[in-house]
Amino acid sequence: MVNEQIVVNTLLVAFDLSGTFVFALSGATAGVKHRLDLFGVLVLAFAAGNSGGIARDVMIGANPPALTGIGGGMVRDILVMEIPNVLRTELYAVAALIGAAVMVLGKKLHLPTSVAATTGAVLCFGLRFTAMRRGWQLPIARPPQKSG
User: Fold this and answer.
1) Cα separation, 103 vs 109, whole angstroms
2) What is the pLDDT of residue 114?
3) 49, 66 in Cβ contact below 8 A?
4) Which of 18, 78, 16 is nearest to 44 (CA)?
5) Are 70 and 93 in contact (CB under 8 A)?
6) Would the pLDDT of 68 be above 60?
């Protein structure tokens, strides 16, 4: 059981670091797209890779701050003056919210943290991946039509 716990924890850390790396790449790519200088690209990469998790952990009192979330992408987009993708594309935030809800539910049901976290992460990734492949999107808000 202890070995399984170590393997699961190692996988969770690997997923976390991979996510941070991918968000950092997305920040660097946005910096290049917006023709920022090297310092700007590095700042955007750092902000996208780390700021979401830091902001979340500070708000929930987790110390020291670790892990990432959708906030990094939001900070990236705001820094380059774009509407954050999380507010206008696919099932990005909804997938993260469902994954987090599964994690919280698992904790409430006294499941091992590794099981709850892995289940939430797999569900989040699976939903996001499926939404991207099938083009699923939430309805877009539109102003009401004027009559007459």
Assistant:
1) 10
2) 80
3) no
4) 78
5) yes
6) no
> What totals of helices (H) and strands (E) does the chain contain, helices first?
5, 0
| Cα–Cα distance list, 116 to 4, 10, 35, 85, 106 (Å) | 14, 15, 41, 27, 5
What are the extents of the domains in the chain? 1-86, 90-134
Residue 2: DSSP 8-state: H
Do residues 68 and 16 make contact, with C-beta atoms less than 8 angstroms apart? Answer: yes
Could you tell me if 73 and 84 are in contact, meaning their C-beta atoms sit under 8 angstroms apart? yes
What average pLDDT does the structure give for the chain?
Answer: 83
Of residues 12 and 112, more confidence is placed in 112
Q: Which residues contact 52 (CB under 8 A, 6 or more apart)?
A: 23, 68, 69, 70, 71, 72, 73, 74, 75
pLDDT, residue 144, reads 87
